[in-house]
What we know:
homodimer; Rossmann fold; Arc Repressor Mutant, subunit A; 4-stranded antiparallel beta sheet; 8 helices; 38% helix; elongated
Amino acid sequence: MDNMLKILVVDDESRMRKLLRDFLVKKDFEVLEACDGEQALEVFYENKEIALIILDVMMPKMDGWEVCKEIRKNSKVPIIMLTAKSGEQNELLGFELGVDEYISKPFSPKILTARVDAILRRTNQVDASSIVKEGSIEIDKSAHTCTVNGENVDLSFKEFELLLYFIDNKGIALSREKILNNVWNYDYFGDARTIDTHVKKLRKKLGPAGEAIKTIWGMGYKFEI
Amino acid sequence: MDNMLKILVVDDESRMRKLLRDFLVKKDFEVLEACDGEQALEVFYENKEIALIILDVMMPKMDGWEVCKEIRKNSKVPIIMLTAKSGEQNELLGFELGVDEYISKPFSPKILTARVDAILRRTNQVDASSIVKEGSIEIDKSAHTCTVNGENVDLSFKEFELLLYFIDNKGIALSREKILNNVWNYDYFGDARTIDTHVKKLRKKLGPAGEAIKTIWGMGYKFEI
DNA sequence: GGGAGGTTTCACAAAATCTTCATAGAAGAT
DNA sequence: ATCTTCTATGAAGATTTTGTGAAACCTCCC
Lengths: 225, 225
């Protein structure tokens, strides 16, 4: 809860704000909103530790450029500009003002979250996507921890790595060979059946959630909710 | 094998190339190499479907920026720049040239693969069409699953492989021998009539859609809608 | 050197699948 | 028509693959 990154979304259209909020919340960010430039500045100064601002260019009263300029007087917080068409980007102006990224509308969820992740990574904030959620299973890559329904689950190193690999490749049938190549060191030449043992332990530790690890007979395993 | 993503690694130091290759190969990428800018362009234009270029900035003859500029004239292929120190990043220049990401040396394997994954995800290249559709039958090769009219159909390993072979060769009459050679291991010397049993099961499981598997009397089978 | 925990191997039980076989049924040939 | 050849099918046996507990093996730490 408390180490969720805060993102301030500034747009005059409530539909757009909702859209952004939905995507970002799904990616485990905390979202603050403002519907115009003045409110944006207010919210920004009232809240500590805002990790990123997503700013629409076209707004009444104070446009995105002005808000950006104002904020840059005091802060280096990363700013992503939302522009309607690529011509509107005016990259030169943006760079002078310290804009970090642009996203032109309409954008895909993928683009949005990718840019956000990239920018947070670049500005060295905690890796944005260090938390992966899949059903009731939640994995924190950086902390190397795992919870199921909020309950902490103790996983060994290999178990954790294996689960992570499964989740990163959810919906894909994985052969034992592939699993070995990716989860074990490349210099491991042992028995592939050791995977079975780890799968067994994982399933047991995950409880009912462990059923997401499916056996594909004659082939390998697959993670699927 | 053939749908592995190709990554072009460009660096004048062979040690660095080997390092990158080793990590990337482990992550199931196909790695191409070039030791300077000119060779990079050559390799890039001679190979179709390079999914990503990792480019060292400091190189003799033609540096990374120039290579990037050259490639951007024709292609939007994602480019990751390898820089020695963060100062060398020169993000403004990079942004104008269309660099997608930076990695500063020295880097950890984790950083490398994380960035590569992120960028491929962003550019939507990850697992291209693994889904084959034929009439009401839909096969997902990567998930190793099959649906008919959206309904999930549970197929065994051999059944799945057999159906895939049929669909890959739709409209073509296949002798039992040919089927054995392609779907069974080359060291299988059993009865060819075992195919009949599998065809029977397939037809049954596929329901009405199973009628697409046609018997060619005295010859073998053919898949045809 | 002695745990403690994690990893790997092994052996056997359990499950699923594959193959074979016998028989019935169809298609083609005479 | 009748015979021959090939295919469909259900059931049983053989085989392969997976699940699992226990034991052996590491490795790190005290």
